């Protein structure tokens, strides 16, 4: 199948726009490759330090100049259910590396916070910035310059994007991502959402809410809804960072253990010491980035990736814009319905065909680039296969050629929607994005009076007082990266969902973020310029009519700009102390805008 003309046009535009930055990036990579692996440059004392505490078998292997040394960068901690299984991975990796004639060392750990724990709490203000901290921590881990390739252990939210940015900075090193897989299915997601809505209305108590949440999040592995963590795993498949089909295999199973060991063997095989050298800077290019965007749209993934993909691409010298995302979304059919875009969880998605089926469909329709380099070798078609154990041996076989449940995943010829999950909005308020894959068509457009808030708690109090029982556009401002670190505002979702269920026309407009779990609520998010940087959101007042129209891409306040600018803007709230927020002031001061990825590294 020839490439879809829209995908081809956007790819060509990205290549042209990125020519200078990509050329500079590749020149840096080539210089690093030409300088030879770290082992050749390190003095005997340097190298002795690197292996001083290693077992004898590794010390002997380290003396062999042809033996690859694999760095392990891990985001393991016990607070993230998706990361708890990573505790056992380094030992498995080291064992497999020895069997492959290599060594592996734990190069360093990176921070990993759980947005599920910090949601609605002060710590959430550090969440987005943790991505750049993770990228920098990855650089610290690898800056010993003692490695021939690297394995990255991480799954959730800001963690995978941070690891990717760090990996791409070490462009000469092959990079392979090792996931943990999803937890087994618990309480159905629709039931969880129902209990949350009842709690928001005061119809059930905290005991009932805690029981429902505990039945939903009940074991090791990724939370099973299709939020940012599982969107990351989709992305790692479509960009070629994973071994094929490894995203949604359960933790603590023989197949998962076999995939971890195979990751180590593959990392040893693709170094400059062998015949299949795959430096990550060569592997990830404009076509790989476009494939990731197509996957985001085709699966209705998390809005957080509208930030992260831009930042990740930038790390590889690729300049990606919101216009690119919007144009790709309009050309990409929606092939999956996984909660919050449907009732199924990722385990149901995997059973119905999963990523192998989705990638097969995208390639058949010419919506994805097949001619890319992946960690498995040339060609995205390798990712239409799935791993399996046959007589205890890891092998790959063709994935499902047809959907096994068309309520969950469908072919391009029978898509849930002719276009994908995100839509760019723009107007006098600024530019933002809306996730439309879970929003009913009748909620795509609204014009209603504004109700303006600067704190989530004030909105929730107004909701409880009944002041929002009307058609309303909720404006939540001073939530952007420069104001307070751009926390997720998922705590607003249950109350806004209740207003929708009561028959009101409701939308949210904010310079902040929503969770990857956000669903039926129409929300114009990531609005830039943010209020703290002089955006018109700082001038909007209660009662101003606002249009939020995903159909036509409009985001505007129906007050002329001269009148707005004649008003005194709302004051930027003072930064709040505590929870480590004092240490991140330099990040708030130096962060770039949301449509550039909200990064301090590429501001």
TrEMBL record:
Catalyzes the dehydration of 6-phospho-D-gluconate to 2-dehydro-3-deoxy-6-phospho-D-gluconate. Belongs to the IlvD/Edd family. InterPro entries: 6-phosphgluc_deHydtase, Dihydro-acid_dehy_C, DiOHA_6PGluconate_deHydtase_CS, ILV_EDD_C, ILV_EDD_N, IlvD/EDD_N. One of its GO terms (biological process) is D-gluconate metabolic process. It catalyses: 6-phospho-D-gluconate = 2-dehydro-3-deoxy-6-phospho-D-gluconate + H2O. One of its GO terms (molecular function) is 4 iron, 4 sulfur cluster binding. Residues 408-598 form the Dihydroxy-acid/6-phosphogluconate dehydratase C-terminal domain. Binds 1 [4Fe-4S] cluster. Keywords: 4Fe-4S, Carbohydrate metabolism, Gluconate utilization, Iron, Iron-sulfur, Lyase, Metal-binding. It comes from the Bacteria. Its EC number is 4.2.1.12. Its cofactor is [4Fe-4S] cluster. It is an enzyme of class 4 (lyase). Gene3D superfamilies: IlvD/EDD C-terminal domain-like. PANTHER family: D-XYLONATE DEHYDRATASE, PHOSPHOGLUCONATE DEHYDRATASE. [4Fe-4S] cluster binds at residues 156, 223. Pathway: Carbohydrate metabolism; Entner-Doudoroff pathway. This is Phosphogluconate dehydratase. GO terms for cellular component: cytosol. Residues 68-380 form the Dihydroxy-acid/6-phosphogluconate dehydratase N-terminal domain.
């Amino acid at each position: 199948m020839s490439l879809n003309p829209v995908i081809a046009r956007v790819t060509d535009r990205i290549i042209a726009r990125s020519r200078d930055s990509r050329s500079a990036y590749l020149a840096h990579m080539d210089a690093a490759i030409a300088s030879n692996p770290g082992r050749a440059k390190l003095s005997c004392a340097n190298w002795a330090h690197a292996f001083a505490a290693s077992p004898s078998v590794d010390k002997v292997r380290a003396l062999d100049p042809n033996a690859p040394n694999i760095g392990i960068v891990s985001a393991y901690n016990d607070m993230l259910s998706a990361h708890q299984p990573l505790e056992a991975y380094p030992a498995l990796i080291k064992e497999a590396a020895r069997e492959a004639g290599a060594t592996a060392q734990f190069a360093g750990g990176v921070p990993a916070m759980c947005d599920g724990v910090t949601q609605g709490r002060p710590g959430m203000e550090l969440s987005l910035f943790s991505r750049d901290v993770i990228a920098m921590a990855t650089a610290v881990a690898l800056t010993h310059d003692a490695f021939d390739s690297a394995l990255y252990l991480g799954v959730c939210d800001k963690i995978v994007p941070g690891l990717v940015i760090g990996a791409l900075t070490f462009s000469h090193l092959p990079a392979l991502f090792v996931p943990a897989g999803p937890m087994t299915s618990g309480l159905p997601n629709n039931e969880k959402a129902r209990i949350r809505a009842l709690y928001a209305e005061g119809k059930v108590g905290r005991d009932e809410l805690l029981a429902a949440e505990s039945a939903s999040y009940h074991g090791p592995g990724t939370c099973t809804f299709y939020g940012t963590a599982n969107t990351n795993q989709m992305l790692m498949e479509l960009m070629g960072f994973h071994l094929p089909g490894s995203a949604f295999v359960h933790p603590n199973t023989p197949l998962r253990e076999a995939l971890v060991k195979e990751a180590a063997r593959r990392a040893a095989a693709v170094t400059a010491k062998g015949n299949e050298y795959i430096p990550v800077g060569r592997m990830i290019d404009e076509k790989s980035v476009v494939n990731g965007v197509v996957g985001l749209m085709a699966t209705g993934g998390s809005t957080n990736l509208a930030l992260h993909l831009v930042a990740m691409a930038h790390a590889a010298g690729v300049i990606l814009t919101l216009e690119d995302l919007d144009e790709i979304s309009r050309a990409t059919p929606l092939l999956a319905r996984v909660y919050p875009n449907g009732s199924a969880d990722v385990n149901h998605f995997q059973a119905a065909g999963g990523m192998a089926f989705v990638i097969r469909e995208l390639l058949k329709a010419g919506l994805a680039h097949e001619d890319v380099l992946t960690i498995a070798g040339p060609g995205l078609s390798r990712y239409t296969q799935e791993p399996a154990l046959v007589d205890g041996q890891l092998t790959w076989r063709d994935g499902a050629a047809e959907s096994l449940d068309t309520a969950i995943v469908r072919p391009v010829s029978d898509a849930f929607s002719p276009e994908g999950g995100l839509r760019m909005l723009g107007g006098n308020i600024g530019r933002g994005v809306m996730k439309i894959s879970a929003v009913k068509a009748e909620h795509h457009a609204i014009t209603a009076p504004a109700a303006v808030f600067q704190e989530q708690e004030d909105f929730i109090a107004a909701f409880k007082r009944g002041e929002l029982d009307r058609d309303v556009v909720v404006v939540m401002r001073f939530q952007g990266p420069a104001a307070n670190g751009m926390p997720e505002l998922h705590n607003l979702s249950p109350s806004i969902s209740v207003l929708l269920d009561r028959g009101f026309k409701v939308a949210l407009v904010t310079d902040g973020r929503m969770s990857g779990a956000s669903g039926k609520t129409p929300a114009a998010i990531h609005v830039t310029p943010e209020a703290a940087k002089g955006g018109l959101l700082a001038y909007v007042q209660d009662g101003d009519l606002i249009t939020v129209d995903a159909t036509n891409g409009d985001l505007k306040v129906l007050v002329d700009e001269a009148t707005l600018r004649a008003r005194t803007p709302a004051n930027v709230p003072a930064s709040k102390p505590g929870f480590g927020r004092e240490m991140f002031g330099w990040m708030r001061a130096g962060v770039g805008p949301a449509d550039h990825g909200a990064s301090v590294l590429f501001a």
